[in-house]
Design brief:
The protein is mostly helical. The chain is about 80% helix and about 0% strand. The model has no long low-confidence stretch (mean pLDDT about 85).
Amino acid sequence: MNGITDRVLRGTVLVSLARIMVNILSMLSTIILAWFLVPADFGLVAIAGTVIFVISVATELSLSSALVRHKAPDESHLSAAFTLNAVRSLGISLFTAAISWPIATFFGDQRLVPIMWAFAGSLFIGGLVNPRMALAQRDLQFWQDSVVQIGQKLAGLIASFAWAYAFRDYWALVAGSVATQVSAVILSYAVLPFRPRILFRHVREFFGFSGWIMASQIVNTLNWRFDQFLVGKMFGAATLGTYNMGSNLAQIATREAILPLTKPLFPAFVAIREDKERLAAAYLRVQRIVSGIALPAGVGLTLVAEPLIALFLGKEWAPSVPVFQAIAFIGGIQALGMLVHPLAMALDQTSSLFRRDVMILGMRLAALVAGAWLMGVSGVIIGVVVTGLFTLLLNLMFVRRLIGLPISHQISANGRSLLGVSTMALMLFWIDPLLAVDNDWTGTALRLALLIGAGALTYLACVALAWKLKGAPDGLETEVVRIVRKLIRAKHPL
């Protein structure tokens, strides 16, 4: 256990550092483009981007996951995975180009046609990525993936900034997306050399694992992108631009705080899946770490959203604040059940995942449509929150069925994080009205810095005190102390 745990922790640290860099680049790209472009530009590309995302994710074959789970993948499996991905990417590229005119007619904007053609080309290129990357993750080696992620995001930032500076139009967003896909493919072969062959073996073997996952992804894609379709169709591109801005920024800040911690878990859970008691202990241990980071990140960002958006994007983006708050809050709270996906995949419960996703989709569609019809965009935001809480409950129930952990145990195991977040929220509610600062850029920056500092200190102090009073049990605090001691010993060996 210790060997696997140490490798998972090392992988988590590496992926976390990479994601921090990626998040910084993503935030920087968004902020820069918000200076050069208007909300309608973001909304127009968001329509095309949402269609592309739905097509891409809904047809994803999960071949990387199949390679990770395979007992002994060889070069023929890698070539077969490359071939299937290439065929798939060619098919969806042609399909995307074919539906560009109907999509443009449906949304009443013919500018969508060339945008979707550009995205179609990038889809095909993205499907040629090196399948050997999956084997590195299978061996709990993540530096290659980290290099690719940082490199592709940097390439996208440079391309989008250059176009925005030169032309100041929505094509800057498209240029950044295409550059990201192209650089990802190039870098994947640079860090892990591999010469694929066209090979159609192992198709049944791959689809035996990927079938239910693919069905689940189709449902999930409709689930998590339907709000953007709804807002774009009912309220127009400009409203979608502000909605999409708030949603994207919040997801970068919350989802990306969780992803580095969950990415190494699928191969780790696969390695110990036969020992349910050990698996349950490992799940609970990592879940406490995830919630200890994601909960304060999500709730904290919810509470500082207004000065954060005003400072970095400008007051014209104020309508995106409620969206940012809703997504950030739900992203933080859902950390309590976020690990269910790698757990279910490791236990071959992909069909159960699909049934869970269908239930969430039904609830979400009803809530979003009713909210939009009755209350406009505000109703959509309320629907997002309600369905997010419903999803959390389903995830907790699913984990109970998979490994026998009662819901009360799953929640109480995160008691210190929940206590710290509650105390932090009360502190910020109390201190914010007392801050007498000007409403200019300097005053807004000072207010934001004071709120973040007060929130962080309150959370850390509360969690540390509760941990000490509890007798220093196993948890995120233990891992932090352990890592710090290792760093000290490495710097000052005896």
